[in-house]
Amino acid sequence: MSKINLSLPEVQIREIRINSITGYQGDAKELVEAREFGLKDKERSFSQCLGCATSKAACMTVLIQDAAVISHGPVGCASCLHEFAFTYRVNYPLRGIERPTPRRIFSTNLKEKDTVYGGNIKLANTIREVYERTHANAIFVLTTCAAGIIGDDVESVCNEAEEELGIPVVAIFCEGFRSKVWTTGFDAAYHGIARKLIQKPRRRRDDMINVINFWGSDVFYEWFAPFGAKPNYIIPFSTVNGLKYASEAAATVQACSTLGSYLGAVLEQDFGVPEIPAAPPYGIAQTDRWFRALGKILGKEEIAEKIIAEKKKEYLPKIEALREKLAGKTAYVTAGAAHGHALLDVLGELGIKAVGAAIFHHDPIYDSGREENDQLAQRVADYGNVFNYNVCNKQEFELVNALNRLRPDVLLARHGGMTLWGAKLGIPSLLIGDEHYSMGYEGLVNYGERILEVIENDEFVKNLEKHAINPYTKWWLEQPPYYFLKGGTGK
Ligand code: SF4
User: Fold this and answer.
1) How is domain 301-478 classified at the CATH fold level?
2) Where does 254-368 have alpha helices with state H?
3) How far is the CA of 316 from the centre of ligand 1 (A)?
4) 200-297 maps to which CATH number?
5) What Pfam family does this protein match (any one) (predicted)?
6) CATH of 53-196, one of 3.60.10.10, 3.30.365.10, 3.40.50.1820, 3.40.50.1980
7) What distance in angstroms lies between residue 114's CA and the mean position of ligand 1's atoms?
8) Of 85, 205, 292, 356, whose CB has the highest number of CB atoms within 10 Å?
């Protein structure tokens, strides 16, 4: 039964909706198989800090061109949101935006007194003032723990402001304490956008395909052209108007199923836009399946076959040459769930042995309920098992311990700050900034070359290792990495 209910203001959290977990240690095959028999989360008796759902909701909403975002809470909860203003700037020019505009990020700055008397009036006044200052086409209000604890009626305040101002004012319930799985923040943002911005379709457009993504380079424009379609990138860099009719697209594809699981399912179930039944196109086998699934949904299978044949003719010899150069190399991956699986696909295809992975959470099944969208299952089937597979919500002490033991030839990290740990240990480390860069057949060449370059240019990290101070003690590095995970020996 679908867990999507747009009549409710709040999204159901991932732990409940799709049984996601944040603690696991074992191998990838066991984890995939656990889907069948019921997956159980493992608690940690010690934990370093985690991410917060608020920043994930901000990651989507702050980057909408003509919107403004208010964090309803203490100012500290908004202190990391400026990073998305940075993301916006460094990714310019992107998606045809001619002139970048300053991001509009505000906080209601709840104080101690507000937690006694309530923050509703402060929020109503802030929405008014933000509108006067920005004339945004939509205002998003992100809730925080403090606002949730004091029980502010954020939904009613937003609805009243919407009537008064005549623009969508969207309450997004993403308090950090609501979920251990911070990607619930993406779902919360999509839930609000689907409730208040996306309209029922007026017609179906064969020339538009939704791409749920972050801010990767524009590979889909060229891929969709033979099908007579253009990508509609959602959500970052879109506009309020552009989002309205995402409901009219011929299909939805995703760059990362962890990111787009909920929105893809909402677009299909509530607006009739089919989501393609295939995991994103990383690795040759998955890229073949992805183009075929897309061709089938568009009724243009012969075009998909033609693309596959032409691209393989061009890129397979290059991929084979890279495999020879990379033979015998090992790698470790740390990333969010589906993109981590995608990187494991890329490694498998390039013949690099993945000696382990620290993946930030695990969704046993996505909101579509389709097993074909399970990229980890595909990875295990296409390229074999991955041992030392750890699900850890960015517990860096576990990562450092595992890296120190496994000593791979290269570390691939999706999130800023994580490459530091590899570099300090003298391990060449690559930050994956553009999630589209390794997609498709050409992506394997892009990444193979990049990985080779990183491995060969290791002088800096080797020198850094000699001078770096590791904050973790010798005692910790001698313990098993999962010492504090339930079932481990730590208390
Ligand atoms: S919403 Fe909660 S978890 Fe997130 S930054 Fe604020 S206090 Fe921390």
Assistant:
1) Rossmann fold (3.40.50)
2) 257-271, 284-298, 301-326, 337-350
3) 47
4) 3.40.50.1980
5) Oxidored_nitro
6) 3.40.50.1980
7) 16
8) 356
- Tens of pLDDT, residue by residue, the chain (491 residues): 578 999 999 999 999 999 999 999 999 999 999 888 778 888 888 888 888 999 999 999 999 999 999 999 999 999 999 989 988 888 766 777 777 888 999 999 999 999 999 999 999 999 999 999 999 999 999 999 999 999 999 999 999 999 999 999 999 999 999 999 999 999 999 999 999 999 999 999 999 999 999 988 889 999 999 999 999 999 999 999 999 999 999 999 999 999 999 999 999 999 999 999 999 999 999 999 999 999 999 999 999 999 999 999 999 999 999 999 999 999 999 999 999 999 999 999 999 999 999 999 999 999 999 999 999 999 999 999 999 999 988 889 999 999 999 999 999 998 888 899 999 999 999 998 888 999 999 999 999 999 999 999 999 999 999 999 989 999 999 999 889 988 777 66
Give CA–CA dist 441/53, Å, rounded. Answer: 34
Give the ligand 1 atom nearest the CA of 52: 4
Residue 7 exposed, middle or buried by CB count within 10 Å (0-12, 13-18, 19+): exposed
Sequence-separated (6 or more) residues with CB below 8 Å from residue 453: none
Residue 255 CA: distances (Å) to CA of 25, 217, 273, 281: 26, 11, 17, 8
348 lines ligand 1 (CB under 6 A): no
**How far does residue 173's CA lie from ligand 1's centre (Å)?**
12
Output the CA 176–ligand 1 centroid distance in Å: 5
For ligand 1, atom 4: residue with the closest CA: 176
CB of residue 144 inside a 6 A radius of ligand 1: yes
> Does the fold of domain 301-478 match that of domain 200-297?
yes
Q: Which residue has the tokens 């208010």?
A: 70
Q: State pLDDT tens for residues 119-130.
A: 999 999 999 999
340 lines ligand 1 (CB under 6 A): no
Q: What is the CA radius of gyration of the chain?
A: 23
| Distance from C-alpha of 446 to C-alpha of 457, rounded to nearest angstrom | 17
Domain boundaries, the chain: 53-196, 200-297, 301-478
